[in-house]
Structures are given as C-alpha cells and as structure tokens.
Amino acid sequence: MNSQTEENYLKALFILADENGKIGVNDLSKFLGIKMPTVNSMMKKLAEKKLVRYVTYKPVTLTEVGKKEAALIVRKHRLTEMYL
C-alpha cells in the first residue's frame, strides 16, 4: 500500500512521462511545487519499492509495476471526480 504522498508522485510521474517514459527530476519538482532534495528522497524511496528506476542526475522512469500502480491511481482519481 502506498501513502497519499507516494500516490501523488506516481500520478505526477505518469502524467509527465514522455514517449521514452523518462521524467527529469527537476521537471517533477516544478510540477509538484516541491524542492529538489525532497523529490530526490522520494525517488529513492520509490526505487526501493521497485516502482521507479532512479539514478542520481539521470531521468526517472516508471517500472512496469510503477506504471500499473500509477495507471490505477489516475483511474481511481478520475472515477472519484466523476461522482463529485
């Protein structure tokens, strides 16, 4: 089970992924309005859970498991918005 914060990061990564699936940490930081050290820390945490591939100073990519998790989160949020 992912925390709400982890879900927010996964959703943002899913939205920002380009054709190669690569997301710059700086772009993620700007998108979320969160400072770089905090984003880097969360990327390490998500990498430990095998949800992203993260190497310092390199773009982040969602793993297959991460893509599935992120897609479910986005779907859940869209369904919730429909009923509000």
UniProtKB/TrEMBL annotation:
Pfam families xrefs: Fe_dep_repress (PF01325)
One Gene Ontology cellular component annotation held by this UniProt entry: cytoplasm
GO molecular function: DNA binding; DNA-binding transcription factor activity; transition metal ion binding
InterPro entries on file: DtxR_MntR_Metal-Reg, HTH_DTXR, Iron_dep_repressor, WH-like_DNA-bd_sf, WH_DNA-bd_sf
SUPFAM superfamilies according to UniProt: Winged helix' DNA-binding domain (SSF46785)
Compartment(s) where it occurs, according to its Swiss-Prot or TrEMBL record: Cytoplasm
The HTH dtxR-type domain, residue ranges: 1-63
Any coiled-coil regions, as ranges: none
Oligomer status and interactors: Homodimer.
Protein name: Iron dependent repressor, N-terminal DNA binding domain
